[in-house]
């Protein structure tokens, strides 16, 4: 018998099968790589989205810190930053939630500590493992902290040192004479301080030149001395530490007056003082100080023109 022969088509089919097998393996590998790269790219995109949402939410959450600061500046000459961490107040949390949502994320937590806000968010989108179709999927999370930076837009808020040498009683008498005036014999400027940095010295030694002029003008109109204490509310105690919040006046430009009603009765252009704080009716400041808002007289409402006196910036903290 002769050798068995196969149709030529069978041989060709075997050859095609041998070629297709590696092609199929390559296609499967390529599909797997594409899925992996797609999954990685989506994970990276969601991570960036989570961080963007956290950054935006943290900056927005500082609404609470800024509101506290402005309220403090409106009410007291000695503003202090809020201390102690706590949940974001409703307006700040609402802002943070909205900014997170704008980045397709949800707010998980929001804390305010002084002038810093810290938030945590997670993305609405999820990502799964590329090699486990139908497996668990997770959201990406983002964390961020932002800080409120405060600076003044006008004026030099650095406390100026007392003159050297300090004004003596003789100097305080001579100062108005150079302008054709006289000092009351019992002027409050001559009253001796009993404690504090000016103990044993006349009260007029602890205040700025413009304040002395305002006190002299008030005494001339009243016909009686204006008794006051320079600087901090309690003359025997140093002013409180204000931390990152700057004081809105030079302490030598503010007085605590023992009889504020008498001084109020003569306030006007000639007496360049104002009452800047409704909660502190015995405090008077030099009219040119930012706390007076360019006015002389009694401030009956909140701090004037606060938005023009300070500048706030919100920065992300590493």
What features would you describe in this structure?
The protein has 318 residues and is α+β, with helices and mostly antiparallel strands. It folds into two domains: 141 residues, no CATH class; 138 residues, no CATH class. Helix content is 35%, strand content 20%. The chain is built from seven helices and ten strands. Strand 7 and strand 8 form a beta hairpin. It is rod-shaped, with a radius of gyration of 36 Å. The relative contact order is 0.13. The model has no long low-confidence stretch (mean pLDDT 75).
Give the helix tally.
7
Q: Radius of gyration, rounded? A: 36 Å
**Which structural class do the helices and strands define?**
alpha+beta
Helix content: 25-40%
Read across the widest sheet, the strand sequence of neighbours is 1-2-3-4-10
Low-confidence stretches: none
User: How many strand units?
Assistant: 10
Domains, number: 2
Order of helices and strands: HHEHEEEHHEEHEEEHE
* Average pLDDT level: 75
User: What about the largest sheet?
Assistant: 5 strands, antiparallel
> N- to C-terminal separation?
90 Å
- Tertiary shape: rod-shaped
Strand portion: 15-25%
